[in-house]
Amino acid sequence: MQQVAIITGAGNGIGAAAAKLLAQHGVRVAVLDVHEEKAQLVAQAISQAGGQALSIRCDVGQRAQVEEAIQLVESHFGDITILVNNAGVGGPFHRVDEVSDEEWDWIMNTNLKSVFLFCRNLLPKMKERNYGRIVNIASIQGLLGSAHSSTYVASKHGMIGYTKTIAAEWGEHGITCNAICPGYVDTAMGVRPEDISDYMNRVIAKSPVKRVAQPVEIAQMIDHLVGPHSGYINGTSITMDGGISSHIGITDQLS
Ligand SMILES: NC(=O)c1ccc[n+]([C@@H]2O[C@H](COP(=O)([O-])OP(=O)(O)OC[C@H]3O[C@@H](n4cnc5c(N)ncnc54)[C@H](O)[C@@H]3O)[C@@H](O)[C@H]2O)c1
């Protein structure tokens, strides 16, 4: 079966690395991002390397844009077999009482409503073909609380609950759904310029492996979860944080 993937937020970071890796392995990849030029650059790089890619501007929190993007991918590449819900925003560090309605809606729509919009549309079609692979990029902040990131934390906990429920509902139809929980990744989101000195040094000092992850390391796990040897992995959350959440030091205040 020809594999066709939608990867959201694939104009940068983890999504871009996943798009390139899946394309190298023969998957036709739709590179979706709210920033059109970034998506175009990734798709061009894939094409130049001999892969097949289509770039689409899509705000994943907007139902009409999600439905239009899915239609475009289906008409261009055929049936969608892989969905990687990766687009995400962290938002500013705010205490709960400082979070505005607009900030809450922006983070929840981008990180969580998007998963619902894509899954609602694609699951029945995957069921018809008795095959589908869904990977949701959550975070260790989907497993732990984190001061001053309440909305992000809520969205990522929601993503993990949603992952488990899709696994339970749709597994009998040949569809698997799993989450990956990265710790700190060397991307625009994970290692912001203003963080590089003090904050990131403290993160790295607490990490058992004394470094942050590279985007390609997360992409390799995505590649495994959508590949032929992962049919029995369903409804789980795979922590990829170098061990940072496994020891008591993480409970010290980082932010
Ligand atoms: N970088 C980290 O340390 C880290 C850690 C844990 C989890 N994550 C998660 O990994 C995922 C990818 O993050 P990243 O580190 O590669 O970030 P990134 O900022 O490098 O890339 C995210 C991409 O998503 C796009 N995007 C943002 N809002 C969008 C929207 N509404 N519609 C479509 N695209 C949108 C951005 O334009 C960007 O290209 C996110 O869900 C993030 O929460 C990242």
Automatic annotation (TrEMBL):
GO-annotated molecular function: oxidoreductase activity
GO BP terms: bile acid metabolic process
Top-level division of the source organism's lineage: Bacteria
Record flagged with keyword Metal-binding: no
InterPro entries: NAD(P)-bd_dom_sf (IPR036291), Sc_DH/Rdtase_CS (IPR020904), SDR (IPR050259), SDR_fam (IPR002347)
Gene3D superfamilies (UniProt xref): NAD(P)-binding Rossmann-like Domain
Entry keyword set: Oxidoreductase
Family of this protein: Belongs to the short-chain dehydrogenases/reductases (SDR) family.
Protein name as catalogued: Putative oxidoreductase
